[in-house]
Design a protein that fits this description.
The structure holds 2 protein chains of 2 kinds. By secondary structure, chain A is α+β, with helices and mostly antiparallel strands. In chain A, about 20% of the residues lie in helices and about 30% in strands. In chain A, the strands form 4 sheets. In chain A, strands 3, 4, 5, 6, 7 and 8 form a 6-stranded mixed β-sheet that branches. Chain A has a two-stranded antiparallel ribbon with strand order 1-2. Chain B is mainly alpha-helical. Chain B has 3 domains: about 60 residues, no CATH class; about 160 residues, Cytochrome-c3 Hydrogenase, chain B; about 35 residues, no CATH class. Chain B contains 11 helices and 7 strands. In chain B, strands 3-4-5 form a 3-stranded antiparallel β-sheet, with no helix packed on it. Chain B has a two-stranded antiparallel sheet with strand order 1-2. In chain B, α5 packs antiparallel against α6 and α5 runs antiparallel to α11. Chain B starts with 8 loop residues before the first strand and ends in a 5-residue tail after the last helix. Classes of the chains: A alpha+beta, B mainly alpha. At the A-B interface, β5 of A face α2 and α9 of B.
């Protein structure tokens, strides 16, 4: 499954001389990786399958790309998987949660990424959970990794993903009464035009090269 | 007692709200003394977020015990990711370097390594460029730790260590200036390598710097660890056990080492880590400046 993206910054028909307007990039969406995964990834997958009987149902895809292992988890199974990974596979640390917004992926627009670290085994893996824009709910993992409290608040603030079960999900970086979620792809860059000695510099998002 | 027109109390559905502005503690104490409830909620701040180490705290007090605290960390997000969406990868380094004013080189390098990984050109970065990145990061580690050590001591009332820590930091910043042209926000590391090579004669300058810093670090460490007031104020506080450290994802291999030794990490251990880190940075710098390719 692939989809093409052409141009950059959406530039077209503007007399763009940078060459970016003519770029065509093919973006691959990854299917599940084939075994052997390489590195310690096979062992992680084996251990998880052994410790967690519902593996095949909960883990929808196992992606190995650029030397990194990502497990795609069904959102309703996230907390179960997280507990197993923490207690049985010794991934004691969750280094936060990042949000991603894919406006074109209907039904899976919002994605939460959890980078995990095992100090015991010196291994890193990543969990990926997707949800729909219309139902932006993902269970909270604060009961598993307490340090994710503020990270989930940030991802809620920036992407509007609602983490069910979070002890106090409020905005953390933006004012409480802010409209919208600033890191979504459809959120504008903003900025205002600046006039100086009669000449006007347009707002960043309005400049030709960035449009 | 002075009269303060802004200090007053008013009744709300939540209870009595007192406004305190600083010069009116006497009247507050008198008024609170009449209140029947022990539980009071105190709003501390907000202060300006760029002032060193302050924030807004909403404290819930039972007598003199803080039972709950909510924090307002300030509106510090600058929308760097959104700005990067509108730039190309090389331009975005200008933003990455501003993510943390104490460790710009680390953020630049992390960002550039990610870009290189995505493009699949990790192997094309020359050994020299990688070495310069390491060199710059180790210098940056020192300049960053010097702020932590100096200001940390300053907040405990020790003025001296700050002067010396900042003297060392200045030397490192001078090296940055010589190499990149800038003392901070250098945008020096770029996808594929670095912006420019080391200037002529830089290696010998760096060797001298390492020598000077090694001597000065000893004095600095003695100034902190040898100071009994500082030691007493940092001993036995901020006690961390390994499970807590892991649950909150406070990453430092040092915690694991201490746990292995059966010691709970404490405030002054963390300071010692910083000194040790700076020392090992010097070792790495020495190794890198001693090899012949550097000339």
């Amino acid at each position: 499954m692939t989809h093409d993206q052409s141009g950059m910054f959406g530039a077209s028909g503007t007399g763009d001389t940078s060459g970016y307007g003519g770029l065509v990039r093919t973006q691959a969406s990854f299917g599940s990786a084939e075994r052997p995964y390489g590195s310690y990834f096979d062992q992680v997958a084996d251990d998880l399958e052994r410790a967690y009987p519902d593996f095949s149902d909960a883990i929808t895809r196992v992606v190995v790309d650029r030397g990194e292992l990502t497990l795609h988890v069904k959102k309703e199974r996230l907390v179960e998987v997280a507990f197993i990974l923490r207690d049985k596979l010794k991934f004691e640390m969750c280094m936060g949660v990042s949000g991603v917004h894919y406006p074109d992926r209907t039904g899976q627009e919002l994605v939460a990424l959890y980078p995990l670290l095992s100090l015991t085994k010196n291994q890193r893996i990543r969990l990926e959970v997707a949800t729909s824009d219309l139902d932006p709910h993902i269970p909270s993992v604060v009961e598993v990794w307490a340090g994710n409290n503020w990270h989930e608040r940030e991802t809620f603030d920036m992407f509007g993903i609602i983490f069910d079960g979070h002890p106090g999900l409020t905005r953390i970086l933006m004012p409480d009464d802010w409209d919208g979620h600033p890191q979504r792809k459809d959120y504008p860059l903003g900025g205002i035009a600046v006039e100086y000695k009669g000449a006007t510099t347009p707002a960043p998002s309005e400049r030709r090269s960035y449009r | 007692m002075t009269f303060d027109p802004y200090a007053s109390s008013r009744e709300t559905t939540e209870g009595t709200v007192f406004s305190v502005t600083g010069g009116d503690w006497d009247s507050l104490v008198t008024e609170i003394g009449e209140a029947k409830e022990e539980r009071i909620i105190v709003n501390m701040g907000p202060q300006h977020p760029s002032t060193h180490g302050v924030l807004r705290l909403v404290l819930e007090l039972e007598g003199e015990t803080v039972t709950e605290v909510r924090t307002g960390i300030g509106y510090l997000h600058t929308g760097i990711e959104k700005n990067m969406e509108f730039r190309n990868w090389t331009q975005a380094v200008t933003f990455a370097t501003r993510m943390d004013y104490l460790s710009p080189i680390f953020n630049e390098t992390a960002y550039c390594l990610a870009v290189e990984k995505l493009l699949g050109i990790t192997g094309d970065v020359t050994e020299r460029a990688s070495a310069i990145r390491v060199l710059m990061m180790e210098l940056n580690r020192i300049s960053s730790h010097m702020v932590a050590l100096g200001t940390g001591a300053l907040e405990l009332g020790a003025m001296g260590p700050m002067f010396f820590a900042f003297r060392e930091r200045e030397m490192v910043l001078d090296a940055f200036e010589a190499i990149t042209g800038l003392r901070m926000n250098m945008a020096y590391v770029r996808p594929g390598g670095v912006a420019q090579d080391l200037p002529a004669g830089m290696t010998s300058q760096l060797r001298e710097l390492v020598k000077t810093l090694r001597k000065n670090f000893k004095d600095n460490a003695a100034l902190l660890i040898g100071n009994s007031i500082w030691m007493k104020r940092t001993e036995g506080i901020v006690i961390w056990i390994l499970p807590d450290v892991q649950r909150l994802a406070l990453l430092d291999q040092f915690f694991v080492l201490l746990d292995y030794l059966g010691i709970c990490a404490r405030c002054n251990h963390i300071v010692v880590t910083k000194i040790m880190n700076s020392m090992s940075s010097l070792l790495i710098l020495q190794m890198y400046t001693d090899v012949s390719w550097c000339e």
